[in-house]
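Changelog-linked ticket: phenylalanine example.
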Amino acid sequence: MAVADAPRDGWTSRRAFLLAAIGSAVGLGNLWRFSTEAGTNGGSAFVLFYIFCVILIGLPVLLAETLIGRHGQSSAPESVRKLAAESNASKHWGLIATLGVIGSLLILSFYCVVGGWVLYYIWVFLGDMIQTGLAGGAFQGRPAADIEGLLPNLFGDARLMVGCGLAFLAITAFFVARGVSSGIEWVASWLMPAFFVLLVLITIYGLATGAASEAISFLFTFDFSKLTPEVMLAAVGQAFFSLSLGMASMITYGAYVGRDVNLAQTSGIIGGADTMVALIGGLCIFPIVFAAGLSVSAGPGLMFQSLPVAFQAMPFGSLIGFAFFIMVAFAALTSSVSLLEPSTAWLKQLTGLNRLATTLILCGVAGVLGTLAALSFNELADFRPLAFIPIFAESNFFDALDGVTAKIMMPLGAILVCIFVGWIADARLIDEENGLDGALHQFWRFLVRFLCPIVLGVIMVTGLMS
Ligand code: PHE
């Protein structure tokens, strides 16, 4: 199925788009960020509100974003501008996607730091495999504290941290520079399926041998009293982060889709797959956390400290650990390319430079910001860039990048997308192609026009003020 009406490089089939979009959605957000946020925000209340956000806010916005992209067939800001012009609205609406383009570059810069941790763990497990052979568990004979100490040790080594982060950025740039069909699509179609299989296997092991019932009750027993405005904002932010929304990524990917694809259906599949992986990720990580007596609110290191402990007890642990972190790296890579692609497509269009040059320039920017983010764990640990904003007063550079993008830029971007699609854009231009009919279509329009922007606005304001 060729993308006949896309004038440029695009997905070669519906399956390729699906895998690339799922690849964008499924990433460190599902494993690393989901477990960190669920752990620090009290578990079940966060998880249930997160699911609510995905269904009633995330999916409608995902459909709205991919529709804008497919209609515009261009870089995200240009796609919005085109639709605005055809709807006799101001071309300045393009700025909502420019905001997303900037946001995606900001996310990329701290995302690569975490991607760097993954590379480091691959290296460590590889070393262990060579040293101790395959048969036994990982890190044989070493105390658990040693294994949990791997990450703090890495944090303490500024050069290694920066080096790993930049290495991950370089790999991302390599695939983006190759282009859509031969770079991004290739990564997604081969690596995503392998990732799913391995995740499920490790989860079954974790549930069978870890503290399964404690983990399940932590994640799924609903306790209304824990649902504070702050937890709600964290959950909305996580839903957007995980679905790659509000950041021009899905508008950009939508532009490479042919008109024959049913976007409502694909949005549902993308959202379902992403949420499933997040929940399976939780069921994979938390039983081990509880069984090993780790603190659920340990913060960003949770996944990196809990899983290796489990790999120690497993037969073939170092091989499984090695394979697992390779898969996480792949999942992260299919997301990081979607964080670099929006700005690449945009700058390329703006300057007329070729793909390689654009990618290199943007990598330079992300590299500088990423270096500062990596140094937040050591040399710059006391630097508080947003000390003047109460909820970010305690955040280092890394946390500030994450907080501002997930708690302000993503919800704001999504509100603006809803207003644009719900109220400004000419419905006739996009509605006929959205794949929904009858009552479902009316319901989608209601969500995009009223429920999403209002709920998002309220959560954002109350969450930021609390
Ligand atoms: N959704 C990705 C993840 O979960 C991260 C991402 C955010 C990608 C925003 C693109 C845009 O890892």
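Closing comment: Example verified and attached. Residues 24-25, 27-30, 104, 107, 241-242, 244, 247, 249, 335, 338-339 surround phenylalanine (CB under 6 Å). Confidence is low (pLDDT under 50) at residues 1-7.
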